[in-house]
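Note to self: keep these together.
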Amino acid sequence: MKRKSNLYCDTYDMNNILSAFNEVCLNTKNKRKIANYKQYKCIYLTRIYNTLKNRDYVVGPYNVFTIYEPKERRIVSQSIHDKIINHLVSRHILYPAIIPCLIPENVASIKNKGTKEGLRLAYSYHRKCKIKYGTYYILKCDVSKFFASINQSILKDKLTKKIKDKDALDIIFKIIDSEKNGLGIGNMTSQILAIFYLNDLDHYIKECLKIKYYVRYQDDFLLFHPSKKYLNECFIKISDFLKKEKLLLNKKSRIYKNTNNFVFLGRTKNGKYAKYRNLKRKIKYKKYLYESGKISLNSYVSTRICYKNVKKKVVI
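Structure:
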């Protein structure tokens, strides 16, 4: 596949800037910021146009905060100005360069895919393997601290092999370097770069390990095969492959028999949500966070009310 060129000029096309602005307005929860930005819309959009055209963009400071559900994560948020530029880089540089080289079983952060497509593929593989093999096994893998562990130098080398445009690479590298380690969760570019980082692993699993039934959502992926022994070999080879990418599988990675139950993308293999005993565990954890001063009373009470409503809908 040839390296992509002439990508950067699309980022400062005024129609593309306006489209990115509308997308950010639609997806930003802080409507007060949006209202202030819309008041001086022409000035701000012209400033973005000049910044990109003159190639002098500097990534602004992040608003960093921590969430604790479903697990503790460091989240970054940007100003409206930086969000618009982030969307422009994603839509007009990363998507054209990266999407064509991804395999269909890579379902995260891609239009018309996502968790719905990931679950559909997983259920489809369960049915096919049941008919074809009767008894089969699933290797479920999860990368430990994926976003924070992504090696920036390796990522840049991968991007250089796909993108020829120097201006495009320059602005992408600025965004990558704005984080001290790995990629920050919360940016559109981070989502796309993350699915791309494991693209070589996807091709290795499909083409070298010859796994026919495979699906991946970010760092969470499944391999289906009738031989448990072969999946054990795959587990070792995947671990070795990831070490070259400076990544490690976490302790939850293991092999399941088709009769075992496990959770993939928040659902069991039968498509059901978590059982109530898992909800009780989450409520207990929220109580701990409140008592240790990490979340407010309002957040704890909201969680109790929310899970109380979920309990009525969950099939036990």
